[in-house]
Amino acid sequence: MDTASDRSASDRPDDLPDGGRTPAEHDRGSEHLTPDLDDAGTRESSSPDASPDSAEDAGAGAEHGEAAHDHASHNAESRRDPTLSELLAGSARGEQPSFATFYEATSDVVYGLALLMHEDAEGALDSTLAVYHQLWEQADERAQDLRLQSQASELLTDAHAADEQDPDDAFRPSEYELVLEWLVPLAHRIIVERFREGLATPIRLTVVSAEEGGGIAGLPEEIIEDISVLSDSQSQVLALSYLAGGTHQQVAATVGSAVPAVKSRLRDGMTRLHARRTTREAELDPILRAAVTKKDVERSGAVKRNFTEDIATDVENGLLVELAEIHALDAIDNRERAVLDEAALTANDAVARAWDTRVLAARRTLAEIFTAYPVVPPSHLLDEVLHNLSDQDVGMGMVESISSHTEVAPKREPVVKRWMIMSGLAVVILAAIGLIWGLTTGQDIQATADDDPEARVVDGIELSEGGTARAVISNAEGVGYVDFSDVGELEGDTTYQLWLMPRDEGQPSSLGNFTASELEEEIVTLRDIEANRALQITVETIRGEERPMGETAGEIELRERVTDGPQYGGSVDEDQEEDE
């Protein structure tokens, strides 16, 4: 994300308490750009030709110099460029030049985000227009929101920075970053609401089944590397929620998983994205460090199983903080948002601080990823933004002057979105695969297996890395499922990979890669039992292997053995009972 560390972090508008200085600024001071003084003032008084000939003249000259310096400083301060916060405050007073300048300074970020989220550029333009129309129409309320959120963000950042070994060296957001920290979530929510109301078309994403390699097709090429750290299931739910605007219930229906599992993936996916930031940023964000602890990164499956189908029930069960990332992703509807906002307002200080920290960390990470590719909107869009406003002279000369100072880097011209699937034929094939997979996934395999009175149930299947599995296999229906518990954590980037091993000498079929926690939260469903002899679990150092390469952690026979030896994954006692 573009930053503005070289921008003026000047005082807030005069209507703020204490001259507009936030409490955080009192602690660390405000930075000001110092404009060049005019020819009067200190330059004149310091000229050698103006030196006094006597002590009295020297004193008078000094007094005159100090007065001139103060006057020049006052003039310089009055001529400084307004901050973005001040421009929005000016918009609240009906100043169109301020609003137009605010638009010029921020619209590339909003439009760039809209391009990532929409199926077509026209929809992205319409949504960008909607964002700035709301900003103008609600400028007074939004300016207050920005002021309060910026103050809260600075205070929270300073509080967590105080816990660092070198508090003075910890990252603090610039004024520009504080504005984006507020504007990007607002713009995202407006765009998401347009999707849900049918006013715009979200990006078309296709869930790819584990059998076909997993993950999700249709992602904008710009963000593929950023989310490559996520597991296949995490990338699916995060893209469908943040980019396509789906609620967690809608995402669960799309990927064919339980709602509690999707909540867990959204939360843990954000944790992974946080962890990636901490490994590559030179100046560590104290908010990020506070939000992502070692416990979060190595979280077991215990908390995941506590999520329910209902947000209100989760809150009653004490899981408010665990829902912070879902709130930041806008993966909730308006009713659920009201429930979470109310719970956060009435929570005790410790819970409220943890909630605020994790929401803020999620928003900073999302802004870093999804606004890293700003695109200048077409020039006519500003005319459309201003079209319904009054006839007040916009003063474009002022806009151009101020915009030249508020830009951090040269803006890029509008570009056409690039997609991961470059060939039209590939898109058709993947869409067909997604349709077929969706239809088969719609069948409730778990219920089908459970309803078979002759289904074989194998309990206590032990894994070599720790943990157990329970399998229910219906040979009559040709389906089954496996539920894992207490799966042992693996070191580094190593993952579990599941394979359907064919009865003949054919190629094994991969069901995907899983971390220990993902295996615990998944119910692994099995189809086409007749064609396969076993489900094999291996430990792989490389994701997406085409055949098992690592050590076998466990294996579950899909058909009963007729030998006298024990059934792999079962027990000797069970086999002896069958023989008798």
Automatic annotation (TrEMBL):
<dbReference type="InterPro" id="IPR051474">
    <property type="entry name" value="Anti-sigma-K/W_factor"/>
</dbReference>
<dbReference type="GO" id="GO:0006352">
    <property type="term" value="P:DNA-templated transcription initiation"/>
</dbReference>
<feature type="compositionally biased region" description="Basic and acidic residues">
    <location>
        <begin position="63"/>
        <end position="82"/>
    </location>
</feature>
<feature type="domain" description="RNA polymerase sigma-70 region 4">
    <location>
        <begin position="228"/>
        <end position="273"/>
    </location>
</feature>
<keyword id="KW-1133">Transmembrane helix</keyword>
<protein>
    <recommendedName>
        <fullName>Regulator of SigK</fullName>
    </recommendedName>
</protein>
<keyword id="KW-0805">Transcription regulation</keyword>
<keyword id="KW-0804">Transcription</keyword>
<feature type="transmembrane region" description="Helical">
    <location>
        <begin position="419"/>
        <end position="439"/>
    </location>
</feature>
<dbReference type="InterPro" id="IPR036388">
    <property type="entry name" value="WH-like_DNA-bd_sf"/>
</dbReference>
<feature type="compositionally biased region" description="Basic and acidic residues">
    <location>
        <begin position="23"/>
        <end position="35"/>
    </location>
</feature>
<keyword id="KW-0812">Transmembrane</keyword>
<feature type="region of interest" description="Disordered">
    <location>
        <begin position="545"/>
        <end position="580"/>
    </location>
</feature>
<feature type="region of interest" description="Disordered">
    <location>
        <begin position="1"/>
        <end position="82"/>
    </location>
</feature>
<keyword id="KW-0240">DNA-directed RNA polymerase</keyword>
<dbReference type="Pfam" id="PF04545">
    <property type="entry name" value="Sigma70_r4"/>
</dbReference>
<dbReference type="GO" id="GO:0000428">
    <property type="term" value="C:DNA-directed RNA polymerase complex"/>
</dbReference>
<dbReference type="InterPro" id="IPR018764">
    <property type="entry name" value="RskA_C"/>
</dbReference>
<dbReference type="GO" id="GO:0003700">
    <property type="term" value="F:DNA-binding transcription factor activity"/>
</dbReference>
<feature type="domain" description="Anti-sigma K factor RskA C-terminal">
    <location>
        <begin position="425"/>
        <end position="548"/>
    </location>
</feature>
<dbReference type="InterPro" id="IPR013324">
    <property type="entry name" value="RNA_pol_sigma_r3/r4-like"/>
</dbReference>
<dbReference type="GO" id="GO:0016989">
    <property type="term" value="F:sigma factor antagonist activity"/>
</dbReference>
<keyword id="KW-0472">Membrane</keyword>
<dbReference type="Pfam" id="PF10099">
    <property type="entry name" value="RskA_C"/>
</dbReference>
<dbReference type="InterPro" id="IPR041916">
    <property type="entry name" value="Anti_sigma_zinc_sf"/>
</dbReference>
<dbReference type="InterPro" id="IPR007630">
    <property type="entry name" value="RNA_pol_sigma70_r4"/>
</dbReference>
<feature type="compositionally biased region" description="Low complexity">
    <location>
        <begin position="44"/>
        <end position="61"/>
    </location>
</feature>
<feature type="compositionally biased region" description="Basic and acidic residues">
    <location>
        <begin position="1"/>
        <end position="15"/>
    </location>
</feature>
<dbReference type="GO" id="GO:0005886">
    <property type="term" value="C:plasma membrane"/>
</dbReference>
<dbReference type="GO" id="GO:0006417">
    <property type="term" value="P:regulation of translation"/>
</dbReference>
<keyword id="KW-1003">Cell membrane</keyword>
